[in-house]
Amino acid sequence: KAGVTQTPRYLIKTRGQQVTLSCSPISGHRSVSWYQQTPGQGLQFLFEYFSETQRNKGNFPGRFSGRQFSNSRSEMNVSTLELGDSALYLCASSLALGQNTEAFFGQGTRLTVV
Amino acid sequence: DQQVKQNSPSLSVQEGRISILNCDYTNSMFDYFLWYKKYPAEGPTFLISISSIKDKNEDGRFTVFLNKSAKHLSLHIVPSQPGDSAVYFCAASAPLKGGGADGLTFGKGTHLIIQP
Predict the structure, then answer these.
(1) Is the preceding omega at residue A8 within 30 degrees of 0, hence cis?
(2) With 0-12 CB in 10 A as exposed, 13-18 as middle and 19+ as buried, what is B83?
(3) C-alpha to C-alpha distances, B29 to A16, B62, B68, B95, nearest whole angstrom
(4) Separation of alpha carbons A34 and B53, rounded Å
(5) Are A42 and B49 an interchain contact pair (Cβ–Cβ within 8 Å)?
(6) CB-CB contact of A13 with A81 (8 Å)
(7) Is B25 in the A-facing interface, judged by CB distances under 8 Å?
(8) CA-to-CA distance for A89 and A19, rounded, in angstroms?
(9) pLDDT by residue for chain B (116 residues), tens digit each?
């Protein structure tokens, strides 16, 4: 059974640009969550999608957005990139919405903003 | 304000001995706790979890203990093996009013080094 797939693995963008990251969850998993990992802040919850709807959101500005498609694949978008957005962005999938089932993480997308 | 704290950035343990990783939390609404292990250039891997209705959960060499009154949990690995060298993250979730659970709140991790 394939794991969580995130593309691309690495990305370099310029300040002010926008970026879209993609996540394909484990087959059968309907919930997709996004996290940002930085050396200073650790892993921080961005948002969670279930059945194409955002069900839960962390404390991030509106420049961070996402969506989920009918096949449960999810995309995350960051607009007007800032240097501080440089981070590892991790996607996690789980069977259902927040039913205390463990989340399975992808390898992440390493975003560098220059 | 950090709601989940792992106060030891690193821990060195001799192979074969017990590794004890600690985690403290401040949010009394947390009702589910998880430990993840992370190798460089990989995403976190789920290790073990515990619900707040329990005080201990065991899976092979891994045991998690929860002390709700102290808002403290710990992960015990025994015996420690070289492959256990990784960063360990403690995570917690709270229930949402409408049902389900909130996103995971992570600690900043403890780098466990197993020495031969």
Answers:
(1) yes
(2) exposed
(3) 38, 25, 11, 7
(4) 28
(5) no
(6) yes
(7) no
(8) 12
(9) 789 999 999 999 999 999 999 999 999 999 999 999 999 878 899 999 999 999 999 999 999 999 999 999 999 999 999 999 999 999 998 887 766 677 889 999 999 999 99
**Tokens, residue A54:** 């955002």
A38 touches chain B (CB under 8 A): no
User: 3-state DSSP call for residue B84?
Assistant: helix
Reading phi first (left if > 0) and then psi (alpha if -120 to 50, else beta), residue A95 is in alpha
DSSP B95: B
Q: How far is B116 from chain A (nearest CA, A)?
A: 28
Q: Which residues of A touch B40 (CB under 8 A)?
A: none
- In a 3-state reduction of DSSP, which class is residue B82? helix
Contact (CB, 8 A) for B66 and B54: yes
- Say yes or no for a CB contact (<8 Å) between B93 and A58: no
Question: Mind telling me how many Å the CA of B29 is from chain A's nearest CA?
Answer: 14
